[in-house]
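Standup notes
- HV: blocked on the assembly model, inputs below
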Amino acid sequence: MAVIIKIGKEANAKKVRLEMDLRKSVNGDLMIFDHGDIDIVLSPSKNKVVVFPKETMSDLVYGAQNRLFAHLRKRGIVVAESIQGGAFYGSLEGMLEESADPDASAAKLALINIHNFIEEERPYFEQTEAIVSMADDELLHPDKTHSTELGEVPQEVEQGSIRQGYVRDPYSLGYMYTV
Amino acid sequence: MKIKHNKKRNTAFVFESLLREATVAIIKGDTDKQHKVVQIIKKHFTADSELKKHLECYRSLYENQSLNAQISEKILTEAKMASRLIDPHGLFKKQTELINDINTTLSPSVFSNFVPNYKTLATIDQIFCDKLPPKTRVMLESTIVENMTKNAPENVANEEIDNTTVSCFVGKFNEKYSETLSEEQKQLLSHYITSFTDNAVSLKMFLNEEIVRLKDAIVESSTDEMFAEDAEMKQKASQIIEKLEGFKKAQINDDILLTVLKTQELVKEMSNGSNN
């Protein structure tokens, strides 16, 4: 059996494997679409992270943007005082810290931390998506207790909530106010 | 003799333009505009109005009817007769009211809407007008009759466009606009065209940077002597900066893109001017 021996700096390097829904743009920016409320852009060339709302701006979206930057700030990835609203509608941006170690790329560290943040948040936004989907499902496909069989409604002497001849029925009460 | 055609006085053209305006408003989800257009149509094109009668005269001629020549000619004679029976002063007054309503409630740009059968409408308008010489009138009438007798075109499925056609189109487009558009304008258009692929994130990112660049460029230029001497120019520059600042609060739309494109052009001119 052949034995592979690795020598040098790379020998002990750990591999980090991230699974994310992201796309690299032509100018090298990484666009991350995993989060339910926000789209995150990591720009290694401009050394910054920009976050946009997925649909419209709301408190929920601002909450997610704020939590992301708090997460990155606490871990020393972004410069705290650089976090500000962008020029575009609903955007929030922050500059990445300069890496002191020439071997550690600030953009790569930011990507790992953004991945961690998304994994932390995933149960919450997936739960929200599930609730929305459930609510739709309840309306579109109600269970037997909340639905009737399709077909003609059989004739009954008394049917519905309005009872004929009942003293408190809406028509009898109506006469009281006509006088 | 060539008679000038006033499209604002062409009842059918105005009606078609309004319909197109309403359609665009519905597609864009602009209910306010849609409501305004419908109100104008309801107000001016009531069943017994002069405008409605005039419109019906046009309609009996311009819609493709696949009729034979004899019936078409009869319809043409009747339509001309019906059009002459309409009180011209009353019609003129109603048209003026309609034009005024469109200009004030909507926009004069309604009259610039593309109406595919504009030529036919203009021809019918000239037939209804008494100023035409007999020969021209007969020639125009024969054109209208010819159109009425044509069979309706069958719906042909859109042919697939091959790569050669696309590359030819792209080549022509680049040839036409490569010198008129600046590099930044091309980038913006490119991001806009491909924005459907990535939830417009790359477009948003580009605009986020571009708006800042434009603002900085205008602020820098406004410190020039030229601006210091001209108070009006300085005021205009500050208005542009204010407008760019306002994009923070507005959702992306065509107006914003147009403003950015225009501002890019302005900044280019300003930088060229300062270099010269």
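- HV (later): unblocked. DSSP finds 13 helices and no strands in chain B. The two ends of chain B are 51 Å apart (CA to CA).
- Next: hand off to the docking folks.
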